[in-house]
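<tokenise_the_fold>
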Amino acid sequence: MTITGLAPLQTAGPEQISFLSHPKYQSQLSTSGAACVVVSPAFEQSTRQGCALIITEDPYLYFARLTRLWKQAQQTQRAFRIHPSAVIDPQAHVAEDAVIGPLCVVERGASIGAGTVLKSRVTLSEGCSVGARCILHSGVVVGADGFGFALHQGQWEKIEQLGAVRIGDDVEIGANTCIDRGALEDTVIGNGVKLDNLIQIGHNVHIGAHTAMAGCVGVAGSARIGAHCTVGGGAVVLGHLTVADHVHISAASVVTRSIAQPGQYTGMFPLDSNANWEKNAASLKQLSRLRERIKALESCISNHKDS
């Protein structure tokens, strides 16, 4: 049998491979039309008769590697290594096997490591560096000026951003994500970091190795985020905070204080009808006054007991 593609369990056909990594989709095993399914030992008996199996302790990881192998096998030979429309400063360093896509800009003193791919319209500003085996998707901007201004007599005066951006090895950055250069020191993205689309990383931010952030995350200037963290989509980390290693921030949360211990953290108000939300918001505004009243009552009760 010839395998012609990879597909989800629900839609896979008789010439496709699929996988199951979550018990939620176990019911689809018996009805899937896939020729072969990657499963863990726990689900070996749940597949339909006649379906070939690849049994592994981590089906999701196996399938991830299978997708890479499949893409490599299907990829056609590139017509170019550096697209003719790319603009590369003579004082930039680009590794011999790096790939630069259409309309990219690599400015003076920038550096691109071995095996790194810049998709279309990527900008790597002056003095910024990208390590080996990285992928920067379309529209990424590395090294724009950080948001630095001094207020003087009601007007904003620009603070020149004199640092750069240093990106480690094996980093992937999603489309239209922006990483600002540092004000004096560099903004640093560690090895193996994965950033989704439309993320804003402020100046002087440090992101530790193998941390992953989902789409629309915002990290304000000078925040330091540890290694092996995850940040859910739309979450915000305020400036000058420190987040420890192995911290996991839920989607749409706002991190307003430093986090010193590993764990899962959530800071969001649950979805509700607008009428209920307005009532709860009104109650929240009174919390400070209610707290003072409770403290006063506790003091009265304590004094009464003492007497």
